[in-house]
């Protein structure tokens, strides 16, 4: 008989030997019965509640053409087939309709062709379903209890956090805390997107090159370091993609809020604070605004990023992208031209400042501006000091109190009025508490490295390292004019400007960035509009 042995477990861990034991039992039974092994089907980490035809491995063997390759399905126990009684009866009907057999090793007398056999198997299926439901209900109650007690109930850590063991009511439990490493990466992404105008695609490329693991893989690697026996420890090697990064950066967990199915859990109108925030509410809102402006989020770039990506921009504010072309010379040879163009074409627009900028010229200009301006400035390590601002929470509570006031006015039942009034009194008390908390702005602490930008620049062997130094430092160059008469504007972050001012260097950048658009500081107008009107030319 052509036999299709099937292995399944709901939770696959490194220490679990369930799949291995099933494999041994199934192979021994096939050899003992002189059966032909068609294929060893394995569905690891697949719940018994998932219908058979929807399972990753088994599903394809229940439909054409593979359904014709076997005669009997073999399992070690009946619940390896399913733990759902309705799915079981559907499967029985399918087996009889397709003239298949079922072999259950711990119940050799199973016979689905007789009424008594189907009745006994049906009772066992119902018992398995009841057991699964009991386990589910117990897990849900446990999860609700942990959520109420602000404990971690299990699963993938939110990126930026990890768990630590604590004693709770005399037992060892877990709670969520900030992870120094991944929380620092969240701060890095925030700065790159909000302060430096970088794209998620650029961040993903950088993180993948640095070997930074995604949330699940990072947790597995940490499990391996701690030698956890009952946890997955082998990273799958999932790479960062803009969609994955956007999901991380759009999660309210970055503010330390407790969530359930993506929604913030609230108590008395306030978000439940599960852990120390990585981003303040104001910073989180600012990040979401920046993400919304990245129209290409989750899409593949039209051209692969190059060494100057994120560093050179058109004066209209759009990034320059790299292109190349070939021309045939008089002697018949081909010459390749490499240049940068304004990306306005991807927005179906034509930029009036469209110029083909030679790659080598832009590199030389960037190096010259950078070294002459900040080359002798010491590189500083910056540490973020989070502030405290409950303005958003106060506004939420005030809105909740206003809604309750209207609901009380419209309520007719005294019981409803009493319940609403009680909630409003709690909100009012919480509001007083929040208003008493002083606002502390976020800040940065700087510490010298003893290395100047020039020394760091010269230590880089190629432009990849130099470009990364510029990008991480927040330096950019905006281009206008023509290649014969270029008008270039070198922009640097506010903290660098401030340090140059403190050193009394006679340098005042003529532009400032507002949402990625260069503005003339003297007139307060966009530089591009001034150039179009011919009001001012600078170099």
UniProtKB/TrEMBL annotation:
Keywords: DNA recombination, DNA-binding. InterPro entries: DNA_bind_recomb_sf, DNA_bind_recombinase_dom, Resolv_N, Resolvase-like_N_sf, SSR_resolvase, Zn_ribbon_recom_dom. Pfam families: Recombinase (PF07508), Resolvase (PF00239), Zn_ribbon_recom (PF13408). This is Recombinase family protein. Residues 158-297 form the Recombinase domain.
């Amino acid at each position: 008989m052509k036999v299709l042995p099937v292995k399944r477990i709901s939770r696959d861990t490194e220490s679990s030997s369930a799949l291995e034991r099933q494999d041994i039992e199934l192979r021994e039974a096939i050899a003992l019965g002189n059966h032909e092994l068609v294929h060893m089907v394995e569905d690891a980490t697949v719940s018994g509640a998932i219908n058979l035809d929807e399972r990753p491995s088994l599903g394809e063997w229940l439909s054409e053409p593979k359904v014709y390759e076997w005669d009997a399905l073999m399992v070690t126990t009946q619940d390896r087939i399913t733990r759902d009684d309705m799915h079981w009866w559907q499967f029985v009907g399918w087996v009889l309709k397709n003239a298949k057999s079922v072999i259950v090793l711990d119940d050799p007398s199973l016979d689905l062709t007789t009424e008594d056999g189907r009745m006994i198997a049906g009772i066992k299926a119902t018992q398995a379903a009841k057991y699964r439901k009991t386990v589910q209900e117990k897990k849900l109650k446990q999860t609700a209890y942990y959520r109420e007690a602000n404990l971690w109930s299990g699963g993938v850590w939110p990126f930026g956090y990890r768990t630590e063991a604590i004693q709770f009511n005399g037992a060892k439990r877990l709670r969520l805390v900030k992870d120094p490493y991944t929380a620092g990466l969240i701060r890095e992404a925030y700065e790159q997107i909000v302060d430096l105008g970088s794209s998620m695609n650029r961040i993903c490329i950088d993180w993948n090159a640095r070997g930074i693991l995604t949330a699940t893989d990072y947790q597995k690697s940490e499990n391996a370091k701690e030698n956890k026996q009952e946890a997955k420890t082998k990273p799958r090697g999932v790479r960062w993609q803009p969609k994955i990064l956007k999901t991380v950066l759009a999660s309210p967990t970055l503010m330390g809020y407790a969530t359930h199915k993506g929604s913030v859990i609230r108590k008395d109108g306030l978000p439940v604070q599960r852990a120390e925030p990585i981003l303040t509410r104001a910073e989180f809102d600012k990040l979401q605004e920046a993400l919304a402006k990245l129209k290409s989020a989750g899409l593949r770039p039209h051209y692969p990023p190059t060494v100057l990506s994120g560093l050179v921009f058109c004066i209209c504010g759009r990034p320059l992208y790299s292109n190349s072309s070939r021309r045939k010379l008089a002697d018949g040879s081909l010459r390749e031209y490499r240049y940068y163009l304004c990306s306005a074409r991807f927005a179906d627009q034509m930029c009036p400042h469209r110029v083909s900028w030679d790659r080598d010229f832009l590199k030389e200009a960037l190096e010259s501006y950078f070294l002459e301006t900040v080359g002798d400035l010491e590189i500083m390590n910056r540490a973020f000091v989070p502030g405290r601002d409950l303005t958003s929470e106060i506004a939420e509570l005030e809105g909740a109190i206003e809604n309750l006031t209207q609901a009380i006015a419209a309520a007719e039942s005294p019981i409803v009025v009493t319940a609403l009034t009680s909630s409003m009194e709690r909100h009012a008390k919480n509001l007083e508490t929040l208003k008493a908390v002083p606002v502390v702005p976020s800040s940065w602490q700087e510490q010298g490295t003893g290395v100047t930008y020039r020394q760091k620049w010269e230590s880089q062997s190629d432009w990849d390292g130099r470009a990364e130094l510029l990008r991480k430092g927040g330096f950019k160059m905006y281009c206008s004019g023509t290649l014969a008469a270029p008008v270039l504007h070198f922009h640097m972050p506010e903290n660098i400007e401030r340090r140059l001012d403190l050193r009394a260097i006679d340098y005042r950048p003529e532009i400032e960035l507002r949402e990625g658009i260069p503005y003339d500081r003297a007139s307060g107008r966009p530089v591009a509009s001034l150039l179009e009107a011919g009001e001012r030319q600078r170099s």
